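Q: What structure does this chain adopt?
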Amino acid sequence: MRLKKYIANIKIFRLILLPIFRYLDFNIKIKHDVTKRNFFIKLYSHKGYWYYGKERENEELEVINKWIKKGDSILEIGAHIGYFTQIFEDLVSETGRVIVVEPTPISINFLKKNINNNSIIIPKAASRNNGSATLYIEKFGGFTNSLNQRFTKLKNRTHQSSQNIVQEISSIEVETETIDNICSRNMFVPKFIKIDVEDAELQVLLGALEILKISKYLMIEINSNKDEIFNLLIKLGYRRVFNHIKNNNYFFEKK
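A:
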């Protein structure tokens, strides 16, 4: 009976309250469900962070807690508004280093509020080359912004269908930089790299061939080119671990 009541409450919430929140999409401050630090979000656009919280990332968090220790250096490519960044900061503590790469201006504004002052924000898109590119932006929270127009359009249609809202994507020009260049100019050798770039992951990896030779752990969301990415990482000395991970997230460890 409790389960049935719980499911009924969820349905009521999603059908009645969430549509109302759509029109109340103001900035709010909540407590991060893992770090318990202040976390600034938009009520509706970033609802996944308070509606699902860490339940979406339980397996990922289990691995991260095993691999990342005090004093480590972390490179996060595609940080969004800093949910994982706060976790990385707490794990490495004040003796560690965290660099985050994020190209979306709205997300960067939230990042500045959500992460520590000693963490470094690179306001660019990681890619295969240093230069510029078009970033495609959806208006459903920026979770699926991408350098791949087709990918963002496809995800935007899914968002529109599930939320019954018509929203067109937009685009901006952003600077691009390779991971190898970012690490070189910051004299940075990451022990752990997280890549979440919405279908641009292969291009990001091709711009990180030198640093991947010395980094130890990799977490990457793979949306396409899976075989090519696997073969590339195998050649660089990595092996896939933790096969039970969901959400298109894969973990690799240097042999």
